[in-house]
Amino acid sequence: MRTRFAPSPTGYLHLGHAHAALFAFAQGGRFVLRIEDIDPLRCRPHFTDAILQDLEWLGLRWEEPVRHQSQHMDEYQSALDILRKLGVLYPCFCTRSQIQGEIARSVHAPHGPAQIGPDGAHYPGTCRVLSPLERDHRLEQGQAYCLRLDVAKAAKIVGAVTWTDLGLGTQTATPEIFGDVVLARKDTPASYHLAVVVDDALQTIDLVTRGQDLRDATHIHRLLQALLDLPTPLYRHHGLILGPDGRRLAKRDQSQTLGSLRRQGFTPQQVKEMADFS
């Protein structure tokens, strides 16, 4: 069984990350480390160095080489090319403020307010209904845009798809709960949803382990796997480590970072126990 731990180097690892890494490692078989550094505005090399040091200190070992997303943009572009040929991508020229305005106005619209999904209120589809002529005109003008997935059209192409969650059994994908997700931006050539699906296939991951907060993401990931004709791994979702305030730990919680705990004199075994993984 090949598993993976895939942190983003946008901050230091905390106890929640330790639990996730240890959970994946404990499944047995082969363990892969992936650095999801596709966001150039937030990812920093010193955070990557700290991630490697923290995991080694915990006693984890992984297969080499470590995959860095930033070195594989061509593979994400190839996936986008396939989706473009299928006709399930469209350019969206809306700014965030315009989208929020459309969502706010939908509250008073005759058809009712915008739907709420795992990522918040659905994109209202403003640019999905643009004519090809209007799209070409805006592209020729050099207007900034992102690429969105036409989820309804994509779902019609692949039909019903399922996956196996080791805790819940067979699950049927309902990707419409996300609305038309963004798959690429100018400053981020591939979204999390697209990159993780491509990476899991290329790294032949058999079992995806991640927190319960990402369980719903599997709906959209399963749709992308079907569109791109990629294998479907098994999934297993673990509980989350909460802070003293009862909320999920975040990278801003500096007192709970692994580096901070190490400097305070805690041992790897003590940190494992604090991460609910003795």
Describe the structure.
This protein is of the alpha/beta class and 278 residues long. Helix content is 36%, strand content 18%. The protein is built from ten helices and twelve strands. The strands form five sheets. A three-stranded parallel β-sheet has the order 1-2-3. The protein has a three-stranded antiparallel β-sheet with strand order 4-7-10. Helix 2 (45-57) links the parallel strand 2 and strand 3. Helix 7 crosses helix 8.
Give the key terms:
278 residues, 12 strands, 3-stranded parallel sheet, alpha/beta, 3-stranded antiparallel sheet
Question: Count of helices?
Answer: 10
Secondary-structure element order, N to C: EHEHEHEHEEHEHEEEHEHEHH
Average residue-wise pLDDT = 90
Specify the structural class. alpha/beta
Terminal CA distance: 22 Å
Please count the beta strands (DSSP E, at least 2 residues each).
12
Overall body shape: globular
| Helix percentage | 25-40%
Q: Regarding quaternary structure, how should these chains be classified?
A: single chain
Main β-sheet, in a few words?
3 strands, parallel
Q: Give the strand order, joined by hyphens, for the main sheet.
A: 1-2-3
**Rg:** 20 Å
State the low-pLDDT regions, or none: 106-114
Strand content: 15-25%
Précis, in short:
By secondary structure, this protein is of the alpha/beta class.
Secondary-structure blueprint of this entry?
Elements: E1 2-5, H1 15-25, E2 30-35, H2 45-57, E3 63-68, H3 73-85, E4 89-92, H4 96-106, E5 116-117, E6 120-121, H5 132-140, E7 146-149, H6 151-158, E8 162-165, E9 169-172, E10 182-184, H7 192-202, E11 207-211, H8 217-228, E12 234-238, H9 258-263, H10 268-274
Parallel strand pairs: 1-2, 2-3, 11-12
Antiparallel strand pairs: 4-7, 5-6, 7-10, 8-9
Helix pairs in contact: 7-8
